[in-house]
Amino acid sequence: MRQVLRFPEDVREFCARRYRNQHREWLAGGGAWPLEILLGSPTEAEAQEQPDAVRDWVAAWREWRGTGNLVWCERRRWTLGPQSLPERLVLEFPRSVAAWIGEEERWQRAWSRYGQIGSGRPALAQRLARYFDALADCSESDMGRLKALLAWIESNPRSGLYPRQIPLAGMDTKWLEPRMPMIADLAAAGTDDGGDPSFHRSCGLREAPLTVRFRLLDNELRHHLGGLSDITAPIEEIARLKLPLARVYIVENVQTGLCFGDRPGSVVFLGLGYGVSCLSRLPWVTAAECIYWGDIDTHGFAILNRARAALPRVVSVLMDELTLLRTRDLWVEEKSPYTAELPLLTTPELEVYQGLRQHRWGPNVRLEQERIAWSDACQTLGLPAAGGLVKPAAQICDRTF
């Protein structure tokens, strides 16, 4: 049959596609309403050719009970006589489309909350429609906190407070952190803050200073800073130092960094993670030899890639295939592997990274840097082994008691 006949299940699929693609636009008042869905109009020849199909189609719509205005039309056929056929279904509002696919309750909740927050604020309302799921699914208490916070920011656009100082109930870090991108976007509505707004700038809040921890591995360097050896300070203050360095070590595990013994002209940075790129703001670091040692897992290589973007000459140690394979008994599972491309890795580094991604040595293999025998690490890093040599766990387990 050339003429497509739309049964109720076909309309449901149509509504599901249209709703999925346009419900945010509808929330912001878009779309052409009412929505008319043509159900089919078979010719007399088509009706004679497949009478059972037409009969089933008409019967399905006669039995249908649902949302919308079903419009019938009368047709007079020479051979079949007068017929009453379903012509079109008219859906007045987005709520009607939502009802067809079991989304009416979520739509109504999102629509109501959208009106509560966006009423009288056109710029905010336009952005608010992006967060349909948050409006539809969050709890009443969360919605109350969001409304209160947006109203407070509107009244205090340049408060200069730290986020935890906001004088509203429930403004703790646990609630704020996962919602920061949404809050920043909504708070920036109606401002000239282009691009991707930062949470603190959009909300007029003060951002806690980025602090960095490092250790001085040289007595002369310690004397240069009044005897200090283990320093945690804001990155801006650290940048003002003028340290005569030859070498910079960067390690991920804090306890690993605490184990480093002295080496002339050297420092070690501890636990920066993905914040490693901040080191590019330290002139006395960028001029030194930089060595990165992280976990042998996908995130370890992702951090190395970021470190190399900040410090192009950084080299990696103890992150090679040989180190990985000779410590097989110390592997653990990486829970959420990194999957993006890492263009700044060297060829050997990339081989290991791709091997981890492709499960070449097993599923989600991970070797934490602190599991490597410290005596081996010291030898590779050029450090004195503190406290004597420690036997690897495998050798201890081989002993007979």
- SSE class: alpha/beta
What kind of sheet is the major sheet?
A: 6 strands, mixed
Number of strands: 11
Give the quaternary arrangement of the chains: single chain
Report the sheet-strand fraction.
5-15%
What is the count of distinct domains?
A: 3
Treating each run of at least 4 consecutive H or I residues as one helix, how many helices? 20
CATH architecture of the largest domain: 3-Layer(aba) Sandwich
Short description:
By secondary structure, the chain is of the alpha/beta class. It folds into 3 domains: 93 residues, no CATH class; 89 residues, no CATH class; 187 residues, Dna Topoisomerase Vi A Subunit, Chain: A, domain 2 (3-Layer(aba) Sandwich), CATH 3.40.1360. The longest helix is centred in the N-terminal third of the chain and has 20 residues.
Question: Could you describe the 3D structure shown?
Answer:
- By secondary structure, this protein is an alpha/beta fold.
- It folds into 3 domains: 8-100, no CATH class; 115-203, no CATH class; 211-397, Dna Topoisomerase Vi A Subunit, Chain: A, domain 2.
- The protein has 20 helices and 11 strands.
- It has helices spanning 8-27, 44-49, 51-63, 94-100, 104-118, 122-128, 132-137, 140-155, 173-176, 180-187, 199-203, 219-224, 235-239, 254-258, 283-286, 298-310, 321-325, 347-357, 374-381, 393-397, and strands at 35-38, 69-77, 81-91, 211-216, 230-234, 247-251, 266-270, 289-293, 315-316, 332-333, 365-366.
- Strand 8, helix 16 (298-310) and strand 9 (315-316) form a beta-alpha-beta unit.
- It is elongated.
